[in-house]
Amino acid sequence: MNRLELFDRYRSLLFAIAYRMLGSVTDAEDIVQEAWIRWQHTESIVQSPKAFLSRIVTRLCIDYLRSARVQRERYTGTWLPEPLITERPDVEDCAELAESLSFAFLMLLECLSPTERAVFLLREVFDYEYDAISQTVDKSIPNCRQIVRRARQHLVLHRPTLANFDDRDLLVDRFLECWERGDLPGLMTLMAADVTFWSDGGGKVVAAQKPLQGCQKVARFLVAIRRSRLTPTLVSRVVAVNGQSGIMNIVDERTHSIFSFEWGGNRIQSIFAVVNPEKLGAVLEVSKP
Residue 263's CB: how many other CB atoms inside 10 A? Predict the structure, then answer.
């Protein structure tokens, strides 16, 4: 098997690691491309291509995050991950992997340092052994175990209970129906009392600078978007966003925004709206025939 065939065998895994580390489709693709270049120029014999390539990608992501963190602190308004249009898992066995793609999970990872994020993801999401993780991040095995334990405790404390996939799909369908009808009471019944609406315009387009909170306030805002003459007419449809049902809003056959959701039991706990066109590059043309 030649180098290209070996790399292609692990390409999807490398992208999966990079996307969860960075929360950006574009940056993850760039990292994978850089890993390919380094792989091509590797002269030594590699015993485990999977471990070797994973190490390259993880270290590149850590370096990128350390440099990007300053930029992110200067980000205008709320920072949200770049949407990834995906196929929803067909079985509940994939639930944990799908959850690790969710906006809510990726935003929780922002609370971890780049190294902590790498250790946690490699162990908890991708099931790497501690000795491989230790070599990847240049930390001792006991240190890596401690990082995972602390990160797990932190994330569990902030992670809401989840509805199953079928319930979530049904809720998104009902949400879109109520939203298109301008049904304020209907929307309110689908959301938790303390629901939060997050909007990421990145300073490129008009978007709420601060999160909106409260069932009535969020529902009124959503209905106003549909009714306002200043807002372009949206054509909305349910799509698979980051491993679960979300909503794509289309204007003039181009993607205007993407909605993703966080669940608290059988209610919508958070709505994440990405309207920054720089984060919609991968899906801008999706709606065209």
Answer: 21
Other residues' Cβ atoms within 10 Å of the Cβ of residue 257 = 25
Q: What is the pLDDT of residues 242-277, one digit of tens each?
A: 988 999 999 888 899 999 999 887 899 999 999 999
Cβ proximity of 236 and 248 under 8 Å: yes
Helix %, strand %, coil % of the chain (to 5): 55, 15, 30
Contact 66, 114 (CB under 8 A): yes
Instruction: Indicate the length of the chain as a whole number.
Output: 289
β-bridge partners, 267: 264
> How many other CB atoms sit within 10 Å of the CB of residue 38?
14
Torsion of CA 180, 182, 183, 189, to 10 degrees: 70
State mean pLDDT over 82-88: 79
Question: pLDDT, tens digit, for every residue of 128-137?
Answer: 999 999 999 9
**pTM summary value:** 0.88
Domains assigned to the chain = 1-74 (1.10.1740), 165-279 (3.10.450.50)
Q: Tell me how far CA of residue 74 lies from CA of 20, 110, 114, 198, in angstroms.
A: 21, 15, 18, 17
In the chain, DSSP assigns E strands to 191-200, 212-213, 235-241, 244-251, 254-264, 267-274
| 266, burial (CB in 10 Å: exposed 0-12, middle 13-18, buried 19+) | middle
Q: DSSP secondary structure string, 18-72?
A: HHHHHS-HHHHHHHHHHHHHHHHT--SPPS-HHHHHHHHHHHHHHHHHHHHHHHH
Cβ count near 26 (within 10 Å): 14
Indicate if the pLDDT at residue 160 is higher than 70: no
